[in-house]
Amino acid sequence: MSVIAAPEMTAEVETDRRPGRVQTRVLTLGIASAVLLILILLAIFAPLVAHYNPDTPVTTALTPPTAQHWFGSDELGRDVLSRVIWGGRIPFLVSAVSVLIATAVGVTLGLIGGYTAGLVGGFIMRCMDVLLAFPALILGFAVIAIIGIGPTSMIIAISVAFVPVFARIAYTSTLSIKREDFVTIARGLGLPASRILIRHVLRNLASEIAVVASSSFGWALLLEAALEFLGMGTRPPTPDWGADLSAASDYVASGSWWVMFGPGVAITLAILCSNLIGDDLAHLLGARSSRVSLGRLLRALTGANRRSASQEAAADA
Amino acid sequence: MPDMIVDVRSLVVDFPIQGGWLRAVDGISFGVRAGETLAIVGESGSGKSVTMSAIMSRARADGARVQGSVLVEGQEILHASESILQQVRGRKVALIPQDPAGSLNPVRTVGAQMREMLTFHRKLSAREADLAALKSLEEVAIPDPARQLRAYPFELSGGMLQRVLIATALALQPQVVIADEATTALDVSVQAQILNLMQTRIKEAGMTLIIISHDLSVVSGLADRIAVMYAGQIAELSAVDELFGSPQHPYTEALLGCIPRLRGSGPRQVLVGIPGHPPDPRGRHQGCAFAPRCAYARDVCRERRPALTENAGHRLRACWVSDEGPLSGFHSSRQAVAAEAEAVEAAEQQRPAPADERPVLRAEDLRVAYRKPSLLSWGRGAELTAVEEVSIEVGHGETLGIVGESGCGKSSLGRAVLRLTRASAGSVRFLGEDVLRMPGPRLRVVRPRMQLVLQSSRQAFDPRMSVYQSMLEAIGVVERDRSARDRQVYQLLDVVELPSRVAEAFPQELSGGQQQRVNIARALATRPSLIVADEPTAALDVSVRAQILQLLRRIQREEGIAYLFISHDLTVISQMAERVAVIYLGRVIETGETTQVLGGPRHPYTRALMQAIPASDPIVARERGLHPIGGEPPNPADRPGGCYFHPRCPFATDRCRVERPELRVLEDGHLAACHYAETLGEWPGVEAAAGEAGSAAGGRGPGQA
Amino acid sequence: MLQYSIRRIVAALPLLLGASFISFVILHLIPGDPARVLLGTQAPLAEVDALRRQLGLDRPLLVQYVVYVGNLLHGNLGTSYLNQQTVVSEITQQGLYTLQLTVGALFVALLVGVPIGLIAGTRPGSWMDRVGMSIAVLGVAVPYFWLALLCIIFFGVDLRILPVLGTGGPSHLVLPCVSLGIGYSAFTARLLRASLIDAYRQPFVHFSRAMGLPGSRILFRSILKYASGPVVTALGLQLGNLLSGAAATEIIFGRAGLGSLTVHAILAKDIPTVQGMILFIAAVYIVINLLVDIFKGVIDPRVRLEWTEARA
């Protein structure tokens, strides 16, 4: 259930909607997106950008930063900067794929659960509750125990951990959107359920999902790094921020701080930017339409609002 | 003016908005004498609530820019320090807020919150404060006050909470009480109780009372003087009888014409409304703010702003026209013209004999029950009945009014006949076809022919679709031809008297009245035979409400559509419906022609509802007085045995407590469900009814929590 | 209140059952003979056969699950094949260290996070709010294991004021607790701020103001109680992160504990220990959140009502 924290990071409620504050938000959103994009592009075009081969020693082991090697060299004499550039490939790939899978599966489950409510919805959400009962890292352990170490395991593990988060948000939002008057009107017009779900429910859900997905990306990065750090991701010598950090930790006590500096900054920067994007999106989308209510998000996530459709209907009656 | 206990001078309040300031209150001045009751009345956006928050010195906290002066007992409070404000707020001036449920902290008991105010302001010990709170709760006739003190706010109904807040205000022993829309959120019977309390406990106790309201008739019986506000200014400030008798400002005059009156047996009132809509406070207007909507307006009105001055008859109003003499009654004469036109039109357009003899809608023994799901299992929880054995019929081009208080199941009924809520028993026939057991494909064909118009005009639109898209979606259900669809969007907008540029707008950019017009246009898009209108005007301002009601009437006349008109407001129902059904706890307790039911009500509840409506004439209001029935609108989860109404009924006998009366025919077409419908006596005194019924009423008591 | 607590406990049972099923099913999802998986590749064939009979692996899956749950209820989580200890005794031995670390980190989180959140939430938009929240945004983003390494370099290597490695005495706890707790303090601060700002917008606050109650009184007597509900819930949910974050922290600082135990077990394919640990951590997590929920019922009576009304 630990991953649930991801969107809560964005659940900061702000009273101040003065134009100036909105501009600040737009600015930080722009900067964060730009930095994250640069990191991603560096990773994608690593063969072109990195000066050195990340896997072969190019200088003496544990050289402090120099003009040739800005981040110094590691225990095998490899260039840390090049490894940092290369090292974003797996984290970004794993996180992006996991969040995409989790979004697709989670939103579908939540949408179906919320729209049908009743027994099907109840069953789906109960299963999600069980999944949520495991801290994400522990869920990762379980998956890795079953299928072994590797990026695929991490993708499965992170997706499984995030599915309930998306499912729950989609579920609660669908429940509330379903009760909105405009959906009642659409039903009254005789529009088919599939059309109502896609045109009215899903569209109104989209911005909320976007907010959660962007901050989940940051949490996926953290989770990936943690798994790598614990030696459950890729095998050396593949460059990876988390794994490199783990390798560097052995040399920290001897004072070689630069080995862990590069990868650490990279991870922090990537997570920071994703979180900021999530925060800002939440604010900006929230300011523009009433659909994204952060308070509702918070309640949805903390499960404080476990009221079902028919209960609400009864209350209306 | 030394005798003024509250003196407001040249008050200006601006709120920051994107790119400037929004002027909410535009230089108003008035005084309140000690012991008098002043009502500030205006539609939304008139600045009445902002005036209130300026008097409570709260506007500044909301980021507003406040200028002018507000004196309370000679003490300037607008720019006073926190410590001076603490001496005034809560001590000299107490507030009864609009939203009783939100105004108390949900996680603290009622008693703790009352105690806090009392220990702080009156410097009482905790014990003394508890005793004072208890005594105060007794004064406002709260049943079992000791228990209510231990209760949490959510355990009490809205009416009870409002009593608690009145009790809190009283216990603080202030000189001035401000009631900010204090009855707006309440049912009509509870509203009458609260108004009664304000009359007896505040006004008659000699306190100064300032009532803020959007509703002239609510304040008519209570106020000594009324200030009518429009666009941040006071349009007219008069003694109540003078204001109602001979309004000096065209806006007041027009507003009085908008109030629907309870129709017993007479003809329907023509509701003209006030053309146009209130000015956008963001735009600075030159001249009189009302000029664009005013029938009397002349050049000077559009050029120079009139000040609030005394005219020859010593009446305060801000109008150039009435400087020259009394108003000619133009607004009322226009009503007469409209009435005549309507009558002629109605005579010409004889309702075409329906090709189909079957009624448009016929529901029999309809029952709607919701299941309260259990959180602990997937199993099925207890049932909650919303609608019980209801049979109704709506003929071609006819309006059936459904009236009842909140929680009576009227909305569930409306949705059940459209099969938007599952009916658990009974049948619904639309033009003879069984709707409830209709297979899916057939339902999709039939459904467009019965449409729904809801109260919340804005929420009725997908916020991501423009008016055009929403309309197109509805038209697309019945119209296959694309170019025809496009044409129809504009035709329909024209039917509801909207300019075609509205199509490009998003619903949130339109005013409430415009939104509701689009809603109606969309409902017409599928050429329905029946429209279920669920509180279509409840959220609208008085002047706009009148417009919409008149629009609905015109459409019915022209298109021959039948309405199932659902409302909590008996006056609106009486003006709209040919026949009416009164609902209590999901059961129809009286039904018949409107003239029969409201002209000679045979069920005590119908009478009670009629009694609870504030008279729109202040003299009638004072003569008649308020005779509220006691108790609270009942909780559907907690049904009494026998006649559902017996706990609140002043006539209830032992028979009523055990035997449920069936709906039976009293005269042709007039039915009522009361054992004593024929012999119903005079309405007994207020005290007896209020006292007894209060304690026995349903409501959600803390005991059940 | 009692009724509410009972309902909450009953509602948590299916979760525990679900958790046990997941830990049970792990064994059967691993390719290969479950008995062999349990005992490791080196185990003698006779032992494997014996275990297979004991677990009834030839019987239907459901029956096996019932047997598994039966074992659980008797406190039997199996035996680690690495050191032949029972999993239960492993957990009880190592659990204490993890408990110390988690509680310490939580303490740090509250000690740092609550004041910052309180200051920021009561003065949104002020410079203190901006500074506090900027730090908090960073604090949330810094991975705890990197922070741990930074701490080691700074306090352990450069300043040499605190011991870095090992399990030892209280001073050994300081760095692990701080590095693990800081992230959660940032989270706590942000959450408390958001909750306070939300509370300040409630009409009851406006009403209290309009009735002349001073701001500090409103804050301490009224708002804090209202605002604490969501914070407590979210922090409860966060304990899962703290618990699993402890794993990495233990490894960095060379501490004994459940984290190290689990990670080593996974890497060594010691399936009984993995199963036991996963189940144990999930159970602890469920129980903590149960306690949080019950505590929330104490502060917010509406929560109680929601749960007791369901069957009314």
Textual characterization of the structure:
- The complex is a heterotrimer of chains A (317), B (705) and C (312).
- Chain A is an all-alpha fold and 317 residues long.
- Chain A is 73% helix and 0% strand.
- The longest helix of chain A is centred in the middle third of the chain and has 37 residues, at 193-229.
- Mean pLDDT of chain A is 77; it is low at 1-18 and 287-317.
- In chain B, the strands form 4 sheets. In chain B, strands 6-7-8-3-9-10-12-11 form an 8-stranded mixed sheet, sandwiched between helices. Chain B has an 8-stranded mixed sheet with strand order 18-19-20-15-21-22-24-23, with helices on both faces.
- Chain B contains 24 helices and 24 strands.
- Chain B is of the alpha/beta class.
- In chain B, strand 9 (225-230) and strand 10 form a beta hairpin.
- Chain C has 13 helices and no strands.
- The mean pLDDT of chain C is 83.
- Classes of the chains: A mainly alpha (317), B alpha/beta (705), C mainly alpha (312).
- Chains A and C meet through helix 6, helix 7, helix 10, helix 11 and helix 12 of A and helix 1, helix 6, helix 7, helix 8 and helix 10 of C.
